Amino acid sequence: MKAFLAVVACSGFFIGLALPLLCPKESKAPPAEPIKRTETTRSFSTANLAPASRMQALAEKAATLRRDEWPGFFRSQLDSPESSRLAARLWAEADPAGFWAWLRQDFDLLRFTDFAPELLKIWAAADPDSAMDAVSAITDKRLGGELRKTVIDTVLDLDVKKGVALAARAGDFNRFGWGHRKWMEDDPEAVVAALATLPLVSDYRRFLNQALPIWAKQDPAAALEWMSRADYHPTRDGFWGDEWLVSGFEAAAKADPDSTFRLALDLEGIKRTEALKGVIASGTLDLDSLKVALQHLPPTATRMIASDMVSARPSDTLSDLQQTAALLNEIPSEKSNLYAVNDLARSWARLDRDSGWQWANSLTDPAMQRRALVYLAKGATPQEVAELPFLGLSDEFFRIALFHLPANQQDAWIAGLPADRREWAESQRK
User: pTM of the entire structure?
Assistant: First the structure.
């Protein structure tokens, strides 16, 4: 009896969990006509058919079904993953609103999340507005957001203008990810124009950060002209805003460095600041041009530009690294510069560790010097480590250096350390 009551209690819990997710909120759109739970049963089995004939027979049978016969037919295929997937696709093509209504009324959350996304892709391709109306009625924030994204992303692949229109009415999302999308490639100019119509709070507006570089790479002059006249609303006080000037000018500078730099200097206020950050991040400026650009940047605008610049610059020869190091020395001291030091130290270790040690010891910023030496030590030979001067270095460096030495060389190495480091080194071996 106790076991029975436990089962009943658990069943009630899961039904209660599913109801808020699947119950609709008020909507002006007329709801799809519900399929009554007393629908005609139209089960169908292909078990007695040869495997090669089963899917064809299933499709032929589906073509004869009335609307009220689909639920029974679909249920009879659920034991076969292959048959259930085909049946779901056929039902979605024949009557997407009916399939959606049945999934909502079925109160099986696992089944709903399993079949709803593919249903919505088919529905959105055929009737995007109806599909969007349907998912907008889902009240659960996480599930509703995922399903709205499914509809919008499906439509964007087919019709960018319509997809952006759906995004405008989608509200915010619990989770969202950005990056390159295929729908940006064919006509990036039209994509940028459409995305720019979205409100600042729209998650989809931030795809401008990826779409603009594609356009700027293909047609830098046109993209620069658009960026120079477009309204720009940067992020302020923690509230989301535009960031596309940085990525747009970075891409344009790689395609046409001189014109892009001149235009960036001609802009005013925040637009000039953001544009110059993009140009610096492109890694295309020489030392004199970088000095000019930095004169027009407030100190707070230099965060991360050193890292972006170093990552963008060539690193195939010692001359490349020496030029990058000279540029890095011009960037105002900032904690994020350590990321740039990491990248440059890796390149130096790969090409010529000896000159890398010289570069690291020439750095005047103590934190940058420590970081460079740590990265160079990670791949150093015992002999290189044993011959280094160890004055004023970090514990992290000493730990890495010590464990690069064979045990029979550690005593001699420790004996040569400054007194304040000798005791520490001994403790590391205990």
Answer: 0.77
